[in-house]
Amino acid sequence: MIRHGDVLLKKIARIPKGDRKDLPREHGRPVLALGEATGHRHVVVGECEAFTIADRAFMKMIERGQIVHYADPGHSAVSTDHARCDVPAGAYEVIQPRQYLYGEQIRVTD
Amino acid sequence: MSQTEGARALARYTEACNYQGALDVEGVEGHLKEYLSALGVQREVRQLPAGWSVESEPGLRRYLGRFLEEFKKRRAALDALDARAARDARDAERRLMQWCIHRLSAWYWGHGEMSWMAAQHLGALQTRAASVLAWSKPVYEAYLSGCWLLHWTDDTLYWVRKPAVFTEEVAGRRRLHREDGPAVESDVEPLYFWHGVFVPAAVVMQPDSITVKDIIGETNTEVRRVMIERGGLEKLREVAEVVDEVRADDTTVPFGIRDGRLLRLHLPGEPLLFVDVANSTPEPDGTRRRYLMGVHPECRPLLGDGEYGPAQELTVHNAVASLYGLKGEDYGPAAEA
Asked: Same structural domain for residues B122 and B228?
């Protein structure tokens, strides 16, 4: 299990079957999450497949890579907010947190 | 293209990225007309003037009407409109139009942001692709002449001059920040930033007006963090009871929950449970940002779609795990940043 800011990568034995929809990519790299208030991106660097199946996000790292926090859409500067994290090859569920407010679950944005 | 020509073009582009820079209105409009000609389309070229209104710009009014019609069922447009519901209709229209130009043209889609568009020309100089050079050259020159954004309507190509920007340098890079006004003085609308975080104007200009209710109601965790830092910390302490806390040097728990607190906020109505944790990566000055996130009153894992996991003991560890839809016993990152 790897936590990179508000992105949690949970190692799983296998990725469930289902219709896959690719996560958006920038500069060829899958974007796992992006910040509305700062414009930052949590991006995977390395050979991988990243997609959703029925609103759950998954990632298959083909070989060891990294999750990197870029400060801008151009990926020109690595942010100081979160250090790089190594991501070993394997299958992961990508979980973004929710919070509870006034009786409702709300996806966390930042 | 010679190396000298490419290097010169890059140097001019780099200098043009220092906003606000000089403005040559005739130059911008001449180059944009060349751009339109290269595309084979006809539009009036018009600078969006400072102090514009939807009433003074018929092209924007028509655009806005179609935008609302097309997107009325889409969440983003409704959110933008709802957020302005308390204001009078004229102000709401202007706010929505500002949102369209800034957030759609520039921030999210990038289709009308000239630094991005002009950069295509640097590549075209290398590939010598005539079909690209035909439109990228005038775009590049318009950017160098002071154009920042483009916004298309059916009959007009609006352009916006580069804004005055206020920044601070952190770890060798600049980020938007200003303590006594908007960090981006744009002709579209003033934009306020606090150490790189895009915040409502009141957070910068009237921090004393921030209430606990404002803080709780702000769902963006970065904006909420800034609201607490700017004016809400003492107000929060007045209503907060510490339910559980983890010492900063407790090595028996995941790094990300050390120095964390589980707080019950005593406000009118239902007591609210929040977990207060520090960022795992320190700031360049060694401090750590803190984030406050709402937790189910029984620490039940939040599974989405209105589903919840079992009730758990009220601990910081269980609370953080619940945000990811997990029980505390299943949450233990091997690496955190």
From this structure: no
Please state the pTM of the whole predicted model. Answer: 0.80
Question: Locate tokens 């916006």: which residue?
Answer: B160
Q: How far is CA B40 from CA B23, B34, B130, B158, in A?
A: 26, 10, 15, 17
Element housing B199 (H / E): strand B197-199
Q: How many Å lie between the alpha carbon of B89 and the closest alpha carbon of chain A? A: 26
Question: Domain total for chain A?
Answer: 1
- Does residue B102 sit in the same domain as residue B193? no
| B157-200: pLDDT as tens digits | 999 999 999 999 887 788 899 999 999 999 999 999 999 999 99
> Same domain, yes or no, for B67 and B125?
yes
Do residue A37 and residue B294 have CB atoms under 8 angstroms apart?
no
Quick check: A82 and B280 CB within 8 A?
A: yes
Whether residue B93 is predicted with pLDDT greater than 80 in this model: the reply is: no
Q: Could B219 and A39 be called an inter-chain contact, meaning their C-beta atoms sit closer than 8 Å?
A: no
Is B320 part of any domain? Answer: yes
Name the residue in chain B with its Cα closest to that of A4. B337
d(CA B318, CA A3): 16
The verdict on B187 and B230 lying in the same domain is no
Partner-chain contact A80 B281, CB within 8 Å = yes
Provide the number of CB pairs (under 8 Å) joining chain A to chain B: 107
What is the ipTM metric for this complex?
0.93
The total number of structural domains that make up chain B: 3
Question: Same structural domain for residues B48 and B131?
Answer: yes
Per the structure, the complete domain to which residue B290 belongs is given by 212-330
Q: Closest partner residue to B333 among A3, A82, A102, by Cβ?
A: A3
Range of the domain at A91: 2-107
Distance from the Cα of B95 to chain A's closest Cα (Å) equals 18
Structure tokens at B129: 């692709």
CA distance B296 to B327: 13
Cβ of A77 and B107 within 8 Å? Answer: no
